[in-house]
Amino acid sequence: MVMITLILGGTRSGKSELAERMAAQSEEPVTYIATGVATDEDMAVRIAAHRVRRPESWSTIEADGDLAGALAGVSGTVLLDALGTWLARLEGFRADRVALCAALSLRSGHTIVVSDEVGLGVHPSTPIGRDFRDALGDLNQSVSAIADEVLLVVAGRVLPLEKGP
User: Fold this and answer.
1) Listed residue (24, 135, 74) closest to 16, CA to CA
2) Which residue in 38, 68, 143, 153 is a FRET match for 163, CA 20 to 30 A apart?
3) Could you confirm whether 50 is annotated as catalytic?
4) Domains, the chain, ranges and CATH?
5) Among 46, 50, 89, 97, which one carries the catalytic annotation?
6) Number of Cβ atoms within 10 Å of the Cβ of 52
């Protein structure tokens, strides 16, 4: 089944665990596209926890700036975790949303995309924080527009979101 599922949530909401459970139910091979880089000890611990949870049968691609390229040619189920860590690595938080959405739409398999919902948090105190929040909000809206299903995870609970007008 060709489908795009976008899973949104805050830090420690359970969004990655939900995505992993969904991918594990696939009868197709699963490819995990990791976008995070261990820039400090906390991030290294988070990445290690994600690695431990993944079944050994899953393939892993560590994506750099070319996320659309990483998606191209991957068959089966893809779990992309996460848009926020990918966007944070891009200069000026400038993502080619059109190319990413095209790559997601052209896939021939279920794609589960995880992203942070940063618009529910504290107002960022710096211009760069506000730029990131706004860029990720725009990116989330672009992916949501092409997604077949959008889920919001809050405190481990899952809320399906309706399509907008």
Assistant:
1) 24
2) 68
3) yes
4) 3-161 (3.40.50.300)
5) 50
6) 7
